[in-house]
Amino acid sequence: MKLKSTFAIFAGLAVALGVTIAHPEASSAKNNTYYCAKLNGGWNTFVNTPRGRVTLINWVRTVSTQWTPESRCSAVSERFQKFLDNGSLKYIRTGNVNRQPVICVAENRGGTCPDKNVLITLQPGADPEEVLIQLIDFRRSVSGQTIVLSNDDAGFYQDGEFYVDMEKFLETVPVDK
């Protein structure tokens, strides 16, 4: 009887280890945590990764009395974490929802931008592609890395829309010091 239960424990551990080895990207991404915090007087969306903390967005503009840098930071950070937790934060892309420019989550290359997947709604007239490129390029330009959009890069075009592979981005973006 003891042998059977010991065997069952080892079998369970072997299955768990096998899943972790077979899908390292899932376990790696799940170790990320998105949050909003104030640093040096400004509100920022951060992501803690296994490599260290990354400043993702520095919120500086007040859009309205309801959407201050603090409230935008909090809402968007919560959305990033929600999409990560439910397993849909694979790619972020640009689009329009209700005639508003947005940055949203797409679960696959070529994925759509439905209203339930909106991360950030931008001001009317804003160019969401420009904002998204600035978001990923800003972090690299700080480190002095050359900015090149290639097949191996985190940012890419699919069917005329700009996408960011979040896993690639967070694996290569410099961490805060």
Written overview of the protein:
By secondary structure, the protein is of the alpha+beta class. The protein has 2 domains: 1-30; 31-172, no CATH class. The protein has 5 helices and 8 strands, in the order ααβββαβββαββα. It has helices at residues 2-22, 24-30, 69-85, 128-143, 166-172, and strands at residues 33-39, 42-49, 52-59, 91-97, 100-106, 118-121, 155-158, 161-165. A 5-stranded antiparallel beta sheet has the order 6-5-4-8-7. A 3-stranded antiparallel beta sheet has the order 1-2-3.
How would the blueprint of this fold be written?
Elements: H1 2-22, H2 24-30, E1 33-39, E2 42-49, E3 52-59, H3 69-85, E4 91-97, E5 100-106, E6 118-121, H4 128-143, E7 155-158, E8 161-165, H5 166-172
Antiparallel strand pairs: 1-2, 2-3, 4-5, 4-8, 5-6, 7-8
Q: Give the helix level as a range of percent.
A: 25-40%
Q: What class do helices, strands and sheet pairing give?
A: alpha+beta
How far the N terminus sits from the C terminus, by CA atoms, comes to: 54 Å
Cα shape: globular
Strand content: 25-35%
Query: What is the count of structural domains?
Result: 2
Strand order within the widest beta sheet: 6-5-4-8-7
Put simply, the count of helices is 5
Mean pLDDT: 78
Summarize the biggest pleated sheet: 5 strands, antiparallel
- Uncertain stretches of 5 or more adjacent residues: 2-27, 139-149
Radius of gyration: 19 Å
User: Which series of helices and strands comes N to C?
Assistant: HHEEEHEEEHEEH
Q: What's the count of strands?
A: 8
